[in-house]
Amino acid sequence: MRIAGIGCCLLDSVYNGFDIKSEKVQKLLSRKNGDGGLQEGKLVFFEDLLKFSGLDYDTLNQILTNGRDPVTMNLGGPSVVAMVQTAQMLEMMDDVSVTFQGVIAKDRSGVKILDILSKTPLKYDLKLADGEHSPGTIVLAGNGERTFVNRIGAAIKMTPELIDENFFKSDIVLCGGTALVPNIHDNLSSILSKVKANGGITVVGTVFDFRNEKKNPDKPWPLVQNGNWEDIDVLVVDAEEAIRISGKESLEEAAEFFENRVQSFIITQGSKSIWVWAGNGAVFKFHKLEKLPVSAYIDELLAKNPELKHDTTGCGDNFVGGVLTSIAKQKEKDPKSKLDIVDLCAWGAASGGFTLLYDGGTYLEKEKGEKAKKIQPIVEAYFKQINC
After folding, report:
1. CATH superfamily label, 2-9+76-135+152-385
2. R_g (Cα) of the chain, nearest Å
3. At what angle do helices 57-65 and 46-53 cross, to 10 degrees?
4. pTM of the predicted model, to two decimals?
5. Domain ranges of the chain
6. Of 13, 202, 302, 341, which has the fewest beta carbons less than 10 angstroms from its beta carbon?
7. Could you read off the pLDDT of 150-180 as tens digits, one per residue?
């Protein structure tokens, strides 16, 4: 079984204790959508924030980080983190190959990214772009929320022409957070069509699309330019992104929009309920729209041991990794059966919840199979939680 992913590969620098109410930060806050200012819980590009603030690079960086070193610098990116999670969960299966393709630069961040990846079971093909810096995100964590300041950097050099043909022939593919890889995002329709023509299962995970928010703040964010929603087998999206992509005003309307367009969807809401739906197509068993809970196992663990809670960076990315894991396991068990969307949610909720127990999105194992052993009981507890 071949599982492949494309998207953004970057270095996350996580800063805790960010106070969005501080006097200096208040001057950086957005006045209207897409103007380049900070918005709590959302993403903005560093270059746009520079223009919005009128500050120089060093002064802006000082305000954002408060002059402190990050609590962690870890591998980030909505696609590569999900792929690392998948590779770790499936590394005991000899007949499974998990690969990722992206672009980084020949700089210190690129060296750090390669060093972290070398400590994971993920196979990767990262092109090196000259004259660019590796993509990176300043993750500002505080008041139970995260705000992201991203530098696209070398990701701008990632184009459909760089995608290896084996990607299109894979059994399962992930196009994750492509809004951070503009040339891939703008060609997502044709990429998905090519995968489906070869019989692959497609998973699309989204991220806050500041580029299109800036361009047209009053219009829906474009996802599949050719309107081929049906080529998305699984859409994993958070509530904010669901509303902005659908162009609707409420989560209920957004869910109705995605029904019978994509083959299935999962809408996450952080620590709140998870919305799932699957149509009766070639890939999934039908499942009516339902709200499922997050992992009570993790909630109870942290309630008893609050010192175990770290930051929420990477929860959504690892959720997507859990979704990929479930698809692979279900297909490994019975290649001809249709997929169960609840199983995807169970693995997603467990994987996303586990991320709260360490800093940053990428977990580095001490031994092969370690992470799978830790997440398996969380999955089992989740099935008991929902009486399944």
Report:
1. Ribokinase (3.40.1190.20)
2. 20
3. 100
4. 0.94
5. 2-9+76-135+152-385
6. 302
7. 999 999 999 999 999 999 999 999 999 999 9
